[in-house]
Amino acid sequence: MAVLDDSAFQSRIGKGTKISGKITFKAPAKIEGEAEGEISGDEIVIAQGAVVTARIAATRVTIAGAVSGEIIARERVEVLATARLRCTISTPSLILNEGAVFDGDCKMPREKVAA
Asked: Per the structure, how many domains does the chain have?
């Protein structure tokens, strides 16, 4: 499992917070609340209970919550057992854990995706 220790996150959208628009993270980020719009960064974690409706472009994305939209990852996407996805994924590496729900399309280019 690729989830980082909570102390590794310099940016966080906490539970009870709803944000919309274009969001760019320069450091590892954890989304625990609600977000919509465009999200970009390096390491993005969508926590269990989070609800995200967005276009996500990142190096690595780990998902335990609900995501609708599009995910473009340059290295990998990990979908944990509690995740619920309705989206399109483009990544060279996809890890889909047992119990996760994924309704959408996945493209896996051989080379890293330019997000």
From this structure: 1
